[in-house]
Amino acid sequence: MRMSVIGCGYLGAVHAAAMASIGHDVIGIDVDERKVAALNAGSAPFFEPQLTELLTEGRESGRLRFSDRMADAAGAQVHFLAVGTPQIPGGHAADLRYVDAAIDGLLPHLRPGDVIAGKSTVPVGTAARLATRVADSGATVVWNPEFLREGWAVHDTLTPDRLVVGAEPDAAGERGVAVLREVYAAAVEAGTPFLVTDLATAELVKGAANAFLATKISFINAMAEIADASGADVALLADALGHDSRIGRRYLGAGIGFGGGCLPKDIRAFAARAEELGRGEAVGFLHEVDAINLRRRERAVQLVVDALGGLVFGRRIAVLGAAFKPFSDDIRDSPGLDVAVRLRGLGADVVVTDPAALDNAAAAHPQLGYARDRNDALREADAVVIVTEWDEYRRDLSPAHAGGLVRGRIIIDGRNCLDAAAWRAAGWQYHGMGRR
Ligand code: UDX
Q1: 266 lines ligand 1 (CB under 6 A)
Q2: Helix 126-134 vs helix 97-106: angle between axes, to the nearest 10 degrees?
Q3: Which residue has a Cα nearest atom 13 of ligand 1?
Q4: Side-chain half-sphere exposure of 296, counting CA atoms within 13 A
Q5: 73 C-alpha to center of ligand 1: Å?
Q6: Domain holding 43: CATH number?
Q7: Which residues participate in catalysis according to the annotation?
């Protein structure tokens, strides 16, 4: 099927490449000329496993092209909206300017029967508003939220847990759903649940899913606070809770909390929209979820300060990780970088290392020190803080090797990802988060 994907960031670039890989004829549109040039050259403008391979394959097959001209979207049967919806400056609501700009740009090129499939995370009610805006063109708006995780984006796009399509309950809506069913025919045939809803429900699924995941993480981090105060171990607690099949172990990883381009801003936008709808109290707990999450960063800083006897000024601190999570170069709202910045603010000599996100981190926070080589970051450090559980630190860093490089054998495990006993046995003072 001929399709356009408007917005080629983490979501759109992966969606475009994945759709081409299953046989569709795809044009990706983005206003950023440099990004378009990179994508056309088969190079991913950000770190995402398997994306480069798909871009190269798409280019060679002739089924995948990128352009900065919206006119090139003309003639596609379905237009996926994949632009960003960041937090508005100075507020909590979602900024819909890129969504509206995409519709403005697309309008002159729409033909009757075209399907616009929204993938961006938007406040409930947006799809209905966009449907009114494009009504005169004869195009149909459906909503098809995206649940991909960075680092697993290709996998999640090609083999999603479920597909959700929201549409108006009329003939045009039904046709829109049929078109999307055809787009995802391979996944549907493989047994992926395909849920058809109204527009509002489809928009809510995404916000609710992210709110639930964020709540789960903050719940276990709240338990970490209690564990700290009572001498319990939150990692063992999470294991024991996780065996309850009604609860499950995933997203019960306590530590410095969640970050990234989605969960933090999405729970805020969700609460802001609920308030607009006069139902703010229904999601009042999300303010707590946010507050618990932000307290974790403060707690990590406190652990470092305490471990150094209250004196961090001028002390050298190695921060392992900058990305908000492993297998990503994304530093948006990275809890680990926030911890690094706070320590620097206390006068520490902070050196950050990361296998993928170093350039992004250095551009955003030039006041921090950086080392490309993990060993250079560790050398002469008075304390080490692990903030992103890359395999390079979690699995491959031996306590004995690291011990030979540092000045002080103090490690703060911000992701509770290390074997505490092994580090202690090698003479390290080990501090987990909410762990004995
Ligand atoms: C998330 C959702 O998972 C995805 O469905 C949605 O489409 C976009 O937002 P992503 O932002 O890529 O995806 O990251 P995710 O893997 O969910 O992790 C989010 C953050 O939570 C990371 O900072 C991670 O380190 C943290 N996290 C995750 C925890 O602190 N503990 C956990 O147990 C799990």
Answers
A1: no
A2: 20
A3: 149
A4: 33
A5: 32
A6: 3.40.50.720
A7: 262
Alpha carbon 436 to its chain centroid, in Å, reads: 30
DSSP 389-406: --HHHHTS--HHHHHTT-
Same domain, 107 and 164: yes
Ligand 1 centroid distance, CA of 206 (Å): 13
Q: Does 436 score more than 90 pLDDT?
A: no
327 lines ligand 1 (CB under 6 A): no
End-of-domain residue from the set 263, 290, 317: 290
Counting ligand 1 atoms within 8 A of each CB, the residue from 213, 334, 390, 413 with the most, and so the one to mutate, is 213
Helices (H) and strands (E) in the chain, counts: 18, 14
- d(Cα 367, Cα 356) in Å, to the nearest integer? 19
Q: 292 C-alpha to center of ligand 1: Å?
A: 16
Q: Which domain holds residue 265?
A: 207-290
- Which atom of ligand 1 is nearest the CA belonging to 252? 33
Indicate whether 115 and 152 sit together in one domain.
Answer: yes
CA angle 191, 262, 159 (to 5 degrees): 15
Element (H, E) at 185: helix 185-189
pLDDT digits (tens, 9 = 90+) for 226-271: 999 999 999 999 999 999 999 999 999 999 999 999 999 999 999 9
End-to-end CA distance of the chain: 56
* Spatial CB neighbours of 317, under 8 Å, sequence gap ≥ 6: 304, 343, 348, 349, 350, 351, 381, 382, 383, 384, 385
The span from the CA of 366 to the CA of 301, in Å, is 20
pLDDT in tens, 103-132: 999 999 999 999 999 999 999 999 999 999
Percent of the chain predicted with pLDDT > 70? 100
Q: How many angstroms is it from 164 CA to the middle of ligand 1?
A: 20
C-beta of 145 in contact with ligand 1 (< 6 A) = no
Domains of the chain: total: 3
